[in-house]
Specification:
- 15% of the residues are buried.
- The chain is built from 1 helix and 10 strands.
- It is mostly beta strands.
- 12% of the residues lie in helices and 41% in strands.
- A hairpin with a 2-residue loop joins strand 2 and strand 3.
- It is elongated.
Length: 176
């Protein structure tokens, strides 16, 4: 009886040692392909930046100059710029609108100064739209906007890319 128990114990231990590596987790192999890096979407090759100038109030309305900076990061074809003005705001000279002017070259930029006339006081949203084609034939559109304030007090805070930013203040510095 003792001999049968020893034989069973030795046979079970041998079976576990032989079957263990086959049933265990796979070992890393040098031939396994490395994991792919995540794809990061590139930014658009055309950047628009709009900044309204100082408003000269005249009667019920006013005059201002809109500075539109267009920068290209790579060669683009068929760049079309379109200025969208709300009711109550018009371009002083239609020939100065950016869709008539030539587009910047690769890696370059161009600044357009657009004289505007407001027929009344108020806050006017102004938009510039750009449509362009890349060398591989893909067509993209982008838009940037700003606000022209005529006779209206501008909100406090710093304007950055169409957003209003406020400086954070630590709680210890706030008066209670």
């Amino acid at each position: 009886m003792r001999g049968a128990t020893r034989f069973t114990l030795i046979a079970a231990a041998s079976a576990c040692l032989l079957a263990g590596p086959a049933l265990g987790p796979p070992l890393p192999r040098a031939t396994r392909s490395p994991l792919r890096a995540p794809t990061i979407e590139p930014t658009l090759p055309v950047v628009l930046d709009l900044r309204p100038g100082v408003v000269l109030e005249a009667g019920k309305g006013g005059r201002s100059t809109l500075q539109a900076a267009v920068t290209t990061g790579q060669e683009v074809r068929d760049l079309t710029l379109r200025l969208v003005l709300p009711d109550g705001v018009a371009a002083e000279d239609e020939a100065s609108r950016p869709e008539v002017l030539p587009a910047p070259t690769r890696g370059g930029g161009r600044i357009y100064l657009l004289p505007l006339i407001a027929t009344r006081q108020g806050s006017f949203p102004i938009r510039m739209e750009a449509e362009f084609t890349l060398d591989d034939g893909r067509v993209f559109q982008t838009t940037q906007g700003t606000t022209l304030n005529v006779g209206v007090r501008e909100e406090p805070g710093r304007r950055n890319a169409g957003a209003i930013e406020y400086r954070g203040v630590p709680l210890e510095e706030l008066s209670r």
